Amino acid sequence: MSTLSRRDILMASAAALMMGGGQTPHPASAAEPPPAVPVPPLPTPDPIQTLWYTQPAAQWVEALPVGNGRLGAMVFGGISMERLQLNEDTFYAGGPYSDVNPAAKAALPEVRDLIFQGRYLEAEALAAAKVMATPLKQMPYQPLGDAVLLFQSLDTVHDYHRRLDLDSAVTTTRLVTGGGAWSSTHTREVFASAVDQVIVARLSANKPSLVSANLSLLTPQNATLVADGPDSLLLTGIGPSRFGIEGRLTFAVRLKVMATGGQVRAGSDGIVIDHADEAVVLITAATGYKRYDDISADPAALTAAALALAAANPYARLLADHVAEHQRLYRRVAIDLGSTPAATLPTDERVRANAAQDDPALAALYFNYGRYLLISSSRPGCQPANLQGIWNEQVDPPWESKWTININTEMNYWPAELVDLGECVQPLTAMLKDLSETGARTARDMYGANGWMAHHNTDIWRVAGPPDGPKWGLWPMGGAWLCRHLWDHYDYGRDKGYLAEVYPILTGATQFFLDTLAVLPGTNWLVTNPSLSPENEHPLGTSLCAGPAMDRQILRDLFDSTIKAGEILGRDADFRAKVKATRDRLPPDRIGAAGQLQEWLEDWDLRAPEVHHRHVSHLYAVYPSDQITRRGTPELMAAARKSLEIRGDDATGWGLGWRLNLWARLADGEHAHSILNLLLSPERTYPNLFDAHPPFQIDGNFGGTAGMVEMLVQSGADDIELLPALPRAWPTGHLKGVRVRGQGRLDLAWRDGALDRASLRNDGTQAHRWRVRLGEEVVAVSVPAGGEKRLVLENGRLVLV
Description:
801 residues; alpha+beta; Beta-galactosidase, Chain A, domain 5; Glycosyltransferase; 3 domains; nine-stranded antiparallel β-sheet; seven-stranded antiparallel β-sheet; 18 helices; 23% strand; disordered N terminus; GH95_N_dom; AFCA-like_C
């Protein structure tokens, strides 16, 4: 039976149930209603910890996400039909493949010469014909399908409520049906357990025998659904082909029902739960993916084992273990920005009302939601958070919902170290190890170079060639930018073992550029060529160019990180000297005639077709890097500010996320706050608080979380600045548990716009000395290993107490 016809059957069944057909409301024909069990009231929604609504989700961007890093579900909270849209983080189209164009290596020298000659359109035409990846597109992330639950007739539904509690990572839907003595309360809870590797749904009511439902698994994939025993379903299939790459990745989804009372029957189209007191539904999934070049795993066996282990536990144990593991990460950080009466509204109404009346508690909720989403989509042993985290309902999603590494993947991980979720970076480190292998083949076969590299996108198969087209894809810096996260992870934790582990990745990325940087004619400068400033077209009709500002800035960070890592580890002195000599030949940042920081070597900025372009690539040196700072390079910082003013605030969701961090680095709290409010507007935030590019991209959520930290605390190698961009809208509040570079951890509180107190802890094994700044006040703070120092503001002076 096809997926479509099965869906039609289920929808017809739902209609029959809603009209009073199908199962009877109660198993007996007694004149008296069954006895009711008292239902504890749901807690009043915490305005900074709870997303809540008074109606079911009508569309995907209103549903609520749960995830355990590997498995994800979007929970719609329906009344007669509940939909759990399912994902597994390795499920992509296609199979292992290489995308290097065999003609690229021979054509690249001519492309490079044409760019140096200023014949940009000819260079683009040649690149399009002979250099770009084959296939030109990469493989899209896939949905597994839906678990659909159809409930018996629910008459006169009232007191409807659905919520996502960020602290427990549990969604709850509660509704009351009927009236008087015949009224009944129905509760449905859903969570994704990282401990037991299952999605769990509990269906309950306050009276016996009221849980009746039809369950099935629907999928847009080529798959078969069968009963797997009296209470279980098994869906098995294979992923689709795309862009000429054969679909070879197998997958399996298992669903099991454990009911108390009543009956459970499984058939080829689904499971019937008949008049149970309570039912617990367990769902798990897996694919054949082991790594980018090995798809030999057995998903049926993997899911059978996971489901058997989970089913051995009662619901209370599943829930308790899940909550404990989630809170182990989530409760490390806390924030309070104050509150207004708007905080009492449902979440969708708060988003709509925020533009008219500032809701600081909504900003705090958004901050906490970003942490929740990162925990839910990027755990050790899983894939990194992709363009939509792990949540996707489309077989051909926007931009393939893969990893766009010219900003979007990097932004996903901007908050990770800051909010003490360093473990969540492990999937990104693992992906970089893979890319250092596949990217080495790209470097060799495409560029004739040693080391490794990646362009502006990759997928589950870790291809590293230039996709999409020259204007977007022929940018050699994706891998180099990702390496910034390797250094950041070390710099926050100072783990030399980790640094030794990633050192070959850093040196390999560096080696590629030692081999490929070209001398800019008429100068002694070394530049990238071909390249571009993502994804911005310059005045000469294309984006292709040599040595744009962002490339030079990323290379300074890469080279500096490689040199520092070698020094710390005591390795490769001759190599470090060569890297330093190369770094010294990179062109400096330049200020244009309008006083702006130039995006290109040429002063093209104000002549570019999109002066207000969504990317602000040339401001990488301000954020996420710190090459340009207010006190260290004031002229360049003023030029960066001018560029940001020219570029404007009308941007995509993630574009606003980047601008938020930049205005925070500029110490302009009012402008940063206005950007945050733009991000929280209905045009840029969906009712479920997903970032609206539009369409949905999760990077804006993560950029927003990082930017809020940057408004309140910033840290360099051994420097900490308190309240650098505190807006008037947050006069009193606190931020607790955030990390600073050098194994530090900070609690911060302020009152009436001024510092109240700060506590700095040293998590390291050796004493550490920081310079702590508040405005123009600077205090040197030496904290012993495992110790803590406190600071307060006394008579306008920052002092230790």
